[in-house]
Design goal:
SH3 type barrels, six-stranded antiparallel β-barrel
Length: about 190
């Protein structure tokens, strides 16, 4: 269930509709121009940076300005990127601190049994013993394992570890996440 590309939580940045899957997924954030040839530093927000290849169509900023990636190279834990039609430091500098997106339809297929976080958020969480627990509203990435935040009808959140012992089945078609509750997972 590892995340591959992360939708941002701010709806105006992520381009996500209120219902359903996001239209755009964040893959990076532009930082500062580098040199005078139109390169800009980009921090990565994706587990698939190899998908960001020359000729890829990317969308930048709140307005989702479409840009074609011309070149990319690794640099200090991120990428130095250059876009078509942005040839100098001043032009590319206007993109500073903006988020870079891909169209969700362009995201790579994951192996069987793995899901993007944006596919799971919104699923109804069901326990065989307790019935419907609520809706999956967020997935926190932690060092050990991800944590599922389930919002109960009461408005309280239930935190569940995203482990094989807890997650029994994910059914995207039915909109359901089936879990097995271990002792102590439900609040009193």
């Amino acid at each position: 269930m590892s995340p591959a590309t992360k939708p941002l939580r701010e709806a105006d940045l992520a381009g996500s509709p209120d219902q359903g899957e996001p239209v755009f997924l964040a893959v990076g954030k532009l930082r500062r121009p580098h040199g005078v040839q139109g390169e800009i530093m980009m921090d990565l927000l994706t587990d698939f940076p190899e998908r960001l290849q020359p000729r890829a169509r990317l969308y930048v900023g709140r307005d989702k300005k479409p840009l074609e990636l011309l070149e990319r190279r690794e640099h200090q834990g991120g990428l130095l990127v250059r876009f078509a039609d942005l040839a100098d430091r001043e032009q590319v500098g206007e993109l500073r601190n903006q988020v870079v997106f891909i169209n969700a339809e362009d995201s790579p297929q994951l192996p069987q049994g793995q899901f993007y976080h944006h596919q799971m958020v919104g699923l109804r969480v069901i326990s065989q013993a307790e019935g419907v627990l609520g809706e999956l509203v967020e997935i926190l990435e932690t060092g050990a394992n991800d944590v599922l935040i389930v919002r109960a009808e009461t408005g309280k959140d239930i935190l569940l570890p995203a482990t094989d012992e807890v997650i029994e089945a994910i059914d995207l078609q039915a909109g359901e996440l089936h879990v097995k509750l271990l002792p102590g997972l439900l609040p009193d």
